């Protein structure tokens, strides 16, 4: 009997531990930045404040708030806005009007609660939009091109020593579905291929599908050096603080070539002529 009781106790303990780990709250990628939205058909062009994080478990059972550490706000209730590649996204966005500081993002799920603090938002910049954004090449793996940014004003690399507040810039290509909510389906990785000296990027295979409409989003990121751990060797941490987003509508619905249209038109004319001949013979 004692063995049976011991087994039941262990079973309940294992079940409790599994349940606790399965539902343990986690907050990652907490952020706050300004977001300059360029012309598009879905979001009003403006400069916005955006604060959010990826929170698990996500969904109706989890709520989240962003509380400004100043004690006088502004504070925000974060909305659950899942994206195809970010299914656990919570965020709040409003027009930027000088908000600054840090925010404690607190998530609550049942009796569990967790808090993470964002970096300090204190270096507001209005970043430029891209010019002459265009695509060329294969329909499902097009190459995106644009005019070069001023890499002197927006450098991707800085020579040591890196000090607190040093600014870095990088580009990113984001693909959204051209529909309500403009859900994100792809984000390019950061790296040398998208330093601010870059003027092109080829969309990888497997991202775009035929007969769909997309918004291609070229993003200029400003990273602010928030922590410096050592100067020799250089060891520091940066956070994105300002972003600009330039949009280009892109459709993967095949467009008939002119020669095909000519042949189709000729065929229709021929059929019309044939029908008229038969009519007059009668």
Spell the H/E element sequence: HEEEEEEEEEEEEEEH
Low-pLDDT stretches: 1-21, 259-264, 274-282
Beta-strand share of residues: 35-45%
Number of domains: 2
Mean pLDDT: 87
Q: What structural category arises from helix and sheet content? A: alpha+beta
- The strand count comes to 14
Largest pleated sheet: 11 strands, mixed
Helix proportion: 10-25%
Instruction: Specify the number of helices.
Output: 2
Shape: globular
Distance between the termini: 103 Å
Describe this structure in words.
By secondary structure, this protein is an alpha+beta fold. The protein has 2 domains: 23-117, Sandwich (Immunoglobulin-like); 134-251, no CATH class. It has helices spanning 2-22, 258-281; strands at 26-37, 46-56, 62-68, 76-80, 89-95, 103-109, 112-117, 134-136, 143-145, 167-177, 184-187, 200-202, 213-230, 235-251. The chain has an 11-stranded mixed β-sheet, with no helix packed on it. A hairpin with a 6-residue loop joins strand 8 (134-136) and strand 9.
Blueprint (SSEs and pairs):
Blueprint: H1 2-22, E1 26-37, E2 46-56, E3 62-68, E4 76-80, E5 89-95, E6 103-109, E7 112-117, E8 134-136, E9 143-145, E10 167-177, E11 184-187, E12 200-202, E13 213-230, E14 235-251, H2 258-281
Parallel strand pairs: 1-14
Antiparallel strand pairs: 1-2, 2-5, 3-4, 3-6, 4-5, 6-7, 8-9, 9-12, 10-11, 10-13, 13-14
């Amino acid at each position: 009997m004692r063995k049976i009781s011991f087994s039941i106790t262990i079973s309940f303990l294992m079940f409790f531990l599994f349940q606790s780990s399965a539902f343990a709250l986690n907050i990652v990628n907490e952020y706050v930045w300004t977001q300059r939205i360029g012309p598009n058909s879905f979001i009003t062009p403006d400069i916005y404040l955006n604060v959010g994080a990826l929170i698990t478990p996500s969904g109706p059972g989890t709520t989240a708030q962003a509380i400004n550490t100043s004690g006088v706000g502004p504070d925000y209730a974060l909305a659950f806005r899942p994206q195809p590649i970010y299914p656990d996204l919570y965020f709040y966005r409003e027009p930027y009007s000088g908000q600054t500081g840090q925010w404690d993002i607190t998530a609550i799920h049942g009796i569990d609660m967790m808090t993470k603090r964002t970096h300090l938002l204190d270096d507001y910049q209005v970043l430029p939009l891209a010019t002459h954004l265009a695509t060329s090449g294969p329909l499902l793996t097009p190459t995106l091109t644009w005019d070069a940014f001023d890499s002197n004003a927006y450098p991707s690399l800085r020579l040591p020593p890196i000090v607190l507040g040093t600014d870095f810039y990088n580009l990113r290509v984001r693909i959204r579905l051209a529909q309500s909510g403009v859900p994100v389906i792809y984000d390019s990785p950061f790296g040398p291929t998208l330093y601010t000296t870059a003027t092109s990027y080829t969309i990888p295979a497997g991202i775009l599908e035929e007969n769909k409409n997309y918004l291609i989003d070229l993003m200029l990121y400003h990273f602010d050096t928030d922590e410096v751990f050592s100067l020799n060797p250089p060891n520091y941490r940066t956070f994105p603080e300002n972003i600009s987003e330039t949009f280009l509508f892109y459709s993967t619905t095949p467009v008939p070539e002119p020669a095909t249209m000519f042949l189709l038109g000729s065929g229709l004319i021929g059929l019309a002529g044939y029908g008229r001949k038969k009519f007059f013979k009668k």
